[in-house]
Amino acid sequence: MLSNLPWDLILEILGFSVGVLYLWWEYHANSKLWFASIVMPTISMWIYLRKGIYADFAINIYYFLIAIYGYIVWTRARHRGDDGSTKKKELPITHIPGRNLFYCTALFFILWVTFYCVLRFVTDSSVPIADSFTTALSIVAMWMLARKYLEQWLAWVAVDAVCVGLYAYKGIFLYAVLYAVYTVIAFIGYRNWKRKMLEGS
Q: What are the CB-based long-range contacts (under 8 Å, 24+) for 183-188?
């Protein structure tokens, strides 16, 4: 009986729902977003593997691990008080330092070329350029998010916009809709985080 259920559609709907919740928490810079970041990769890996989007399948292993790291960094940050004592304080939103931006940019291009070569010559992927692009930039963007850098939103704008076309092309229409929403919200999220950063929250 269970084998007759449309599991691909069910998982897409579940992944879509968790993704909306994740987006809400990310927009508000709420550390709960990392719990959604643990659930989503589990769902997405099954979908991507069946659809032949291999790089996105592989990156979800990284997403799972970075979610744990991100939660720890966001919630276990330390702040030294005026009296010299060290207290827990949630990690503040900041601009990415210039040196880190250089390293992130270099890493992105290295990963993009590497993933493209693997997808082009080792797998039967029909979308090696787009798949490798979103995978490489997502790896960098997730680390930026884990460090709570404002500019992570700009990286997600690029990732999400490409994903809309990629998922629509591969017939994963609910995810295409989800990433279209992500693209719009990324612009709004950037402004919201910038306001919070200037307010010191």
A: 183/157, 185/23, 185/27, 186/153, 186/154, 186/156, 186/157, 186/160, 187/153, 187/157, 188/27
Cα(176)–Cα(44) distance, integer angstroms: 13
DSSP string, the chain: -GGGS-HHHHHHHHHHHHHHHHHHHHHTT-TTHHHHHHHHHHHHHHHHHHHT-HHHHHHHHHHHHHHHHHHHHHHS-EEE-TTS-EEE-PPPPBPPPHHHHHHHHHHHHHHHHHHHHHHHHTS--S-HHHHHHHHHHHHHHHHHHHTTBTTHHHHHHHHHHHHHHHHHHTT-HHHHHHHHHHHHHHHHHHHHHHHHHHHT-
pLDDT in tens, 138-172: 999 999 999 999 999 999 999 999 999 999 998 88
Return d(Cα 92, Cα 100) in angstroms, integer: 17
- pLDDT tens profile 164-177: 999 999 888 888 98
Q: What is the pTM of this model?
A: 0.78
Residues 6+ apart with CB under 8 A from 44: 15, 56, 57, 60
Residue span of the structural domain in which 162 resides: 2-199
As a whole number of Å, the CA-based R_g of the chain is 18
Q: Per the structure, how many domains does the chain have?
A: 1
